[in-house]
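Q: Structure tokens for this one, please.
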Amino acid sequence: MFSHMTRSRTLGFLLLSLAAGFGAAQEGGDLQARIVYAFQAEDTNELTNLVQTLTNQVKSGGADAALRYHLAHAQYRFGLLGGAKRSRDAPAAFSVCIDQLKEILDQDSKSVEALALESACYEQLAKYRRVEAVLLRSRADERLKAAYALAPRNPRVLFLTAMDGLAGSKRGSRENNQAFAELQQAAQLFEQSSATREDVPGWGHAEAYLALGIELQSRGDLLGARNWIEKALIAAPDYRAAQRQMATLVRR
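A: Here is the predicted structure, written as tokens:
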């Protein structure tokens, strides 16, 4: 039998361990929220600061998988914004994203979230490196298919799969209709999942809603488009791209 003092020390240790775990998860959730918000608000300066801070933390030697994932995600977002504003910055950002995720996948080759994000970074990098484009897109496709095989109902995986299918198919084709159905399913899965979990990636909700709204608008379903774009703005009120898209509907 434990003495009262021993039980107290044991309980105290457990509470400290739980607190440390919660603290790490909370910090991860905060980082994720800041990265997503900076991207949606198109705040390149904030993304630059986040990338620098995370890079310094990784270089300091305390880089675990979660920290590397956050850095990869921040670089991915910076690359997307950089591509719109300063295209010369984008390839380097996508390359760092890939390098950080490789470190994760070397330790866990079945990390669905790392595979999905690496696929997205390869796909974006291919747009800037024409000589390597075929190889890079092949790698993007390989990673995404691996992620889909592991988790076909992961909303981020399904969203990326749908967007890839829509981009690579002709309107009205079987492939295009299938990709559209996948986008609808991804949006529905996002509605059923939390965007605020602190221990796992939770990005993609507003992007999927906006993408579905844009696709519906292009198909002439303005009511459906407005519904999903409004959902994007409810999920992310400062989402500049969604605000601009809504304005195109208001002017009609």
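A few notes: Residues 1-26 have pLDDT under 50 and may be disordered. The first helix runs from residue 4 to 40.
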